[in-house]
Design goal:
Elements: H1 8-20, H2 22-45, H3 64-76, E1 81-85, H4 91-102, E2 108-111, H5 121-124, E3 141-144, H6 155-165, E4 169-175, H7 188-201, E5 205-209, E6 228-232, E7 246-250, H8 252-262, H9 278-308, E8 312-314, E9 326-329, H10 333-345, E10 367-371, E11 383-387, E12 393-397, H11 402-419
Parallel strand pairs: 2-3, 2-4, 4-5, 5-6
Antiparallel strand pairs: 1-7, 6-7, 8-9, 9-12, 10-11, 11-12
Length: about 425
């Protein structure tokens, strides 16, 4: 067995980074400790026991484990109600459930953080010419307010749009994380400022795509008035244990309406067999605050190393973080490919694979992806991807353990160092 060999330059930079990051790492651990306190308190309050982990089949009536986990999510996220289901395929489906639950023909969906992530384009109908059942197909209009040049939210423009469009605006949509954009991730406090403006000018629901943000702060957007937050279990809240699923949490009415899209009107949350998945969902939520801290440490290390190597990074190593995503502008196609090769070679699964750019459906440029995960597509496990277009940005996320994340980052740095000829 051959252990990885790193250049002296990368070893030296890593030691320097960890010394500089000691205080930042301690802050991540403090947030994880408080998050774990909230989770444990909810587990105790709802009397979690082994009997709740037994699965149900068929209709899944009277599934105490399912109902208790819903209540735990609501409590921990500061919401009136919530539901968690292993059967939700991904974050996009979870968001679709929420959007179709809240919106009706003739309503307006107003996105206030630029256009949402690419996978929602067909859901909304932004690029709908196939009549596949998008919101547009059902008579829902879409409006968009772009972020300001510095990446901040245009609050006056939001207020003006709400005053102009009136009660037709039923949902104001906020994407918390940057997605594939080079813009800052929104903090819970910033989301709270948006909520204040919305509630002062309309009766619209505020819905937040909370993917990548859970447990990075002491509160979630529901604590500042968001009516519905939505996320994927193979990102932060699944803690690396959930093998599929999603959640929605918020006000009782918003969650109720979403539940009728999950199943059917009149049925809502009364059904849903858990099929033996409950144990991993409970365990994942228990692990989540700690696992998110590992991912944040991995991201901060990457920010320090690659900034020291001359790359533009966001956030910087000493910036506050509100999600687990780290961007690294690699500068050249060769640099981006080298970065992804390093991440792949440091993965626990498929480390022997060499990622190559390919023409991924729905994207204008070729995309390269590195992911050696135990769960396919899991973003809480170390992964990186990016389109082959200037400035050749790698979007990095995850790291189940800091130790494995560190190895992946060091391998990526070493690969890029080689491509640059040791410069």
């Amino acid at each position: 067995m051959q252990l990885p060999i790193f250049s002296e330059k990368i070893l030296s930079l890593t030691a320097e980074a960890e010394a500089a990051l000691a205080e930042r790492f301690a802050a991540f651990d403090a947030v994880a400790f408080r998050g774990t306190q909230r989770v444990l308190a909810a587990f105790a309050e709802h009397r979690v026991s082994d009997s709740l982990f037994a699965g149900t089949t068929g209709y899944g009536y009277d599934d105490k484990g399912r109902e208790t986990l819903d209540a735990i999510y609501a409590d921990v996220f500061g919401a009136e109600s919530a539901f968690v289901r292993h059967s939700i395929a991904n974050g996009t489906q979870a968001l679709t459930i929420g959007l179709f639950g809240l919106l009706r023909p003739g309503d307006i969906l107003l996105s206030v953080t630029n256009q949402p992530y690419d996978t929602l384009s067909e859901v909304i109908g932004i690029k709908d010419d196939k009549k596949n059942g998008s919101l547009k197909d059902f008579g829902v209009e879409y409006r968009q307010i772009d972020l300001l040049p510095d990446g901040s939210v245009d609050l006056p423009q939001i207020a003006a749009a709400l005053d102009t469009l009136g009660t037709k605006v039923k949902v104001v949509f906020i994407q918390r994380s940057k997605g594939y954009l080079n813009r800052p991730t929104l903090s819970v406090a910033e989301i709270g400022e948006i909520v204040k403006v919305v509630k002062a000018h309309s009766s619209a629901y505020v819905m937040v795509d909370n993917c990548y943000g859970e447990f990075t702060e002491d509160t979630e957007p529901t604590a500042v008035g968001a009516d519905l937050i939505v996320g994927s279990l193979i990102k932060n809240p699944g803690g690396g244990m959930a093998e599929s699923g999603g959640y929605l949490a918020g006000t009782a009415r918003a969650v109720e309406l979403a539940s009728y899209r999950l199943t059917s009107p009149g049925v809502g949350l009364e059904v849903g067999a858990t099929l033996g998945t409950s144990r991993s969902l409970y365990k994942g939520f228990f692990y989540a605050p700690h696992t998110v801290a590992q991912a944040l440490k991995t991201a901060a290390l990457a920010a320090y190393l690659f900034e020291a190597m001359g790359c533009v990074v966001s956030p910087r190593w000493n910036d506050d973080r509100h999600d687990i995503i780290q961007t690294v502008q690699c500068g050249t196609p060769e640099g981006l490919c080298a970065f992804c090769r390093g991440i792949q070679s440091g993965s626990p699964v498929d480390a022997f694979v060499t990622p190559e750019p390919w023409a991924m459906p729905g994207y204008q440029d070729e995309v390269i992806m590195a992911a050696g995960a135990f769960v396919q597509g899991s973003s809480i496990e170390l992964s990186a991807d990016g389109p082959l277009r200037a400035p050749y940005t790698a979007f990095l996320q995850g790291g189940l353990t800091y130790e494995s994340g560190k190895i992946g980052i060091m391998r990526a740095a070493d690969e890029m160092w080689k491509v640059r000829g040791g410069k």
